[in-house]
Write a structure and sequence with these properties.
Layout: E1 5-12, H1 19-29, E2 33-45, E3 48-54, H2 57-68, E4 73-78, H3 84-97, E5 102-104, H4 119-129, E6 135-136, H5 140-147, H6 155-166, E7 172-175, E8 184-191, E9 194-201, H7 211-224, H8 229-245
Parallel strand pairs: 1-2, 1-4, 4-5, 5-6
Antiparallel strand pairs: 2-3, 7-8, 8-9
Helix pairs in contact: 1-7, 2-3, 3-4, 5-6, 7-8
């Protein structure tokens, strides 16, 4: 059997809950072969980030050239991109090799509150990468920061920000509602002329480290397998909800623990 291949371009989390490690776990759990390009090494655990070592842009390019010149990558997911020169290197590699199905998780702030992307890098992300994306997956704070606005508090404001993000050139936008209140966690998928809502019960747990990475990777896995975008989002939402529901069974770390990526195999 030949597995479709998905590529993650992101930072490393040595505690295994987020970043490259979460992406590769998600790819495996969702039935695709995972490849990776590392943009940054972090010193972090479930309690927070203590240090970041950014990989030189030239070496990011070398990794991308090695993978994309050899592997038949069917979807690309980006996470922590760190700096403007790295974003530019990624954009240039995508231009050279044209892999399909770019899913951008615009990682800007860690769950611990640490900033992971500078203002200059956000501007480069908007200009160089967003117009190439099949989908971008900002949470409510990230959507606001991409637009230089206040965080949306009402559905009408979420809808306006979704349309504004579409105007930056991406094919679709998934604004995640995990930071909102209420019994349901609602994500909003905006495409040209349409909006879909994906709802799931909000689960009471502190073990949500890596949720955004996992959702974007699960969507990329679905796209790599040939699913339509709406079906890929629905499947990823269901997968993440189940992984959060099973997270307390892991008991990893003393802080904000990870999801249970392999819950289906218990």
């Amino acid at each position: 059997m030949t597995l479709p291949i998905a590529l993650t371009i992101a930072g490393s989390d040595p505690s295994g809950g987020a970043g490259i490690q979460a992406d590769l776990k998600t790819f495996a759990a969702c039935g695709v072969y995972g490849a990776s390009v590392i943009t940054a090494l972090t010193a972090q655990n479930t309690c927070g980030v203590t240090d970041v070592h950014v990989v030189p842009a030239e070496f990011v390019t070398a990794q991308l050239d090695a993978v994309l010149s050899d592997l038949d990558v069917r979807a690309v997911k980006t996470g922590m991109l760190a700096r403007s020169d790295i974003i530019e290197a990624i954009a240039e590699a995508l231009e050279r090799f044209s892999p399909p199905n770019l899913v951008i998780d615009p990682v800007m702030i860690a769950s611990s509150g640490n900033a992971l992307l500078t203002e200059e890098a956000i501007a480069t992300l908007r200009e160089k990468l967003l117009p190439r994306a099949r989908l971008i997956t900002p949470n409510l704070p990230e959507a606001a920061r991409l637009l230089g606005e206040s965080e949306a508090a009402r559905e009408i404001d979420i809808a306006r920000q979704g349309r504004a993000l579409l105007a930056l050139g991406c094919e679709a936008v998934l604004i995640k509602g995990g930071h909102a209140g209420g019994a349901q966690s609602i994500d909003y998928l905006f495409a040209k002329g349409s909006v879909e809502r994906f709802s799931a019960p909000r689960i009471d747990t502190n073990n949500t480290h890596g949720t955004g990475c996992t959702l974007a990777s699960a969507i990329a896995a679905g796209l790599a397998r040939g699913l339509a975008l709406s079906h890929a989002v629905r499947g990823a939402k269901d997968y993440v909800t189940a992984a959060i529901a099973a997270a307390d069974r892991l008991a990893v770390g003393r802080g904000n623990g990870p999801l249970h990526h392999f819950h289906a195999f218990d």
